[in-house]
């Protein structure tokens, strides 16, 4: 068929095949794809990351920071790579980071980490579904053993359960080391579900995902039961630093935070701070994360407390931050370089990256919130951003 893209079943990841596909598309559409075809990486490194490869879409990468992170895993000054096409973004994050540094750095804490797959089991009636749930509890050890036999990394921690009509939804919660782990837990849960189906005294069938894992979707369940890492960044903003560097005051910041909380609640927003998704998306693209996980990762809570001396306690809690430092897109050449800038490539580094992401979100929220209060938001975009003449 003349409309099918050229492919080589033996080796499709070569310069020649990429060129053939660009020529094919040029003939079909009239677009040369000249710039898309200019890249430095070897297509041979791409199996497992993309299909029908034609070239590279180049994103500008800027550096924000450094930012002082006082974490349990990230400790020191970090230069943060942000891939974005939005003018003012890097400058704004850098400003927030300077404020953080002046106030002694941001404290970061990783609380827990889980990745889920949630099969739905179907029975003849609700009573069978209820009794099946008890049987699952009694055989958790055997189920965990089967699930964990598929991976040297995934460890099944617990199974949440819900009955609906004649179905029983099981939400398998794993730790997955330094990998995000979605594919890993799918394989593990498939093996466990097959074992359950074969050994359950109550006949059942199942769907591997009943959609309660809420993969790449925001959900209230993820806000309560972490999907990815639950990480918290917190700081006490000194009132004199806020006045000198941000041209506002902590009392006004506290009042604005109350108004923002109400507005976010009315709107049903997933995050009540200024813009967590901006920093997360830019860092995700730069470091080879699965960009669709921004949907889950950006949700969270900004909290504040005006202290007796008028300093302002400020924190960001990200309940479902999904990051990896090993596997997936993290090993691609430019993404690996950005991870190396942070000292976050390879095994044993995912908690460190999570702390840096949370610190970055806090920096961006501090800067944007004060720009809005001080009236610099629009003027900054006019000067540096997309709105410039």
Taken together, the total number of domains comes to 3
Number of strands: 10
Q: Which percent bin holds the helix content?
A: 40-55%
CATH homology group of the largest domain: 3-hydroxy-3-methylglutaryl-coenzyme A Reductase, Chain A, domain 2
Reported by name, the CATH topology of the largest domain is 3-hydroxy-3-methylglutaryl-coenzyme A Reductase, Chain A, domain 2
Q: Which sequence of SSEs, written as H and E, runs from N to C? A: HEEHEEHHEEHEHEHHHHEEHHH
Global mean pLDDT? 93
Distance between the termini: 48 Å
Give a short account of the largest sheet: 10 strands, mixed
CATH class of the largest domain: Alpha Beta
Low-confidence residue ranges: 377-382
> Structural class of the helix and strand makeup?
alpha+beta
Keywords: Membrane, NADP, Oxidoreductase, Transmembrane, Transmembrane helix
Protein name: hydroxymethylglutaryl-CoA reductase (NADPH)
GO molecular function, one term: hydroxymethylglutaryl-CoA reductase (NADPH) activity
Family: Belongs to the HMG-CoA reductase family.
Could you explain how this protein is built, in words?
This protein has 389 residues and is α+β, with helices and mostly antiparallel strands. The chain has three domains: 10-58, no CATH class; 62-112 and 228-384, 3-hydroxy-3-methylglutaryl-coenzyme A Reductase, Chain A, domain 2 (Alpha-Beta Complex), CATH 3.90.770.10; 119-207, Alpha-Beta Plaits. The protein contains 13 helices and ten strands. It has helices at residues 15-29, 89-102, 126-138, 140-148, 182-199, 220-224, 239-246, 250-267, 276-287, 294-297, 333-341, 350-374, 377-384, and strands spanning 61-71, 75-83, 106-117, 120-122, 155-164, 167-175, 205-207, 228-237, 301-306, 312-321. Strand 5 (155-164) and strand 6 (167-175) form a beta hairpin. Mean pLDDT is 93; it is low at 377-382.
């Amino acid at each position: 068929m003349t409309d099918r893209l050229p492919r080589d079943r033996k080796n499709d990841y070569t310069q020649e095949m990429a060129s053939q596909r660009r020529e094919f598309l040029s003939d079909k559409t009239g677009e040369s794809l000249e710039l898309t075809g200019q890249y430095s990486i070897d297509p041979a490194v791409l199996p497992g990351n993309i299909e029908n490869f034609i070239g590279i879409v180049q994103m500008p990468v800027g550096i924000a920071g450094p930012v002082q992170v006082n974490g349990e895993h990230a400790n020191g000054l970090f230069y943060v790579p942000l891939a974005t096409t939005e003018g003012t973004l890097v400058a704004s994050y850098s400003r927030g980071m300077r404020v953080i540094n002046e106030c002694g750095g941001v404290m970061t804490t990783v609380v827990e980490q889980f990745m889920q797959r949630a099969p739905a089991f179907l029975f003849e009636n609700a009573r069978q579904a209820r009794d099946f749930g008890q049987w699952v509890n009694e055989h958790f050890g055997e189920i965990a053993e089967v699930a964990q036999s598929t991976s040297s990394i995934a460890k099944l921690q617990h199974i949440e359960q819900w009955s609906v009509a004649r179905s029983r939804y099981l939400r398998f919660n794993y730790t997955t080391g330094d990998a995000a782990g979605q594919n890993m837990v799918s394989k593990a849960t498939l093996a466990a579900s097959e074992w359950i189906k074969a050994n359950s005294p109550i006949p059942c069938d199942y769907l591997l995902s009943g959609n309660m894992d809420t993969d790449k979707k925001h959900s209230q369940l993820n806000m309560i039961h972490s999907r990815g890492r639950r990480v918290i960044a917190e700081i006490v903003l000194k009132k004199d630093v806020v006045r000198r560097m941000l041209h506002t005051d902590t009392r006004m910041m506290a009042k604005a935070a109350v108004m923002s909380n109400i507005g976010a609640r009315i709107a049903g927003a997933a995050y009540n701070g200024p813009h967590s998704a901006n920093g997360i998306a830019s860092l995700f693209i730069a470091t080879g994360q699965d960009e669709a996980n921004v949907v889950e990762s950006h949700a969270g809570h900004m909290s504040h407390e005006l202290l007796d001396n008028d300093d302002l306690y400020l924190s960001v809690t990200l309940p479902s931050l999904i990051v990896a430092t090993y596997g997936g897109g993290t090993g691609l050449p430019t993404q690996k370089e950005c991870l190396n800038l942070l000292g976050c490539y390879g095994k044993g580094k995912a908690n460190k990256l999570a702390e840096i992401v949370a610190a970055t979100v806090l920096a961006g929220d501090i800067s944007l919130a004060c720009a809005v209060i001080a009236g610099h938001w629009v003027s900054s975009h006019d000067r540096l951003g997309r709105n410039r003449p």
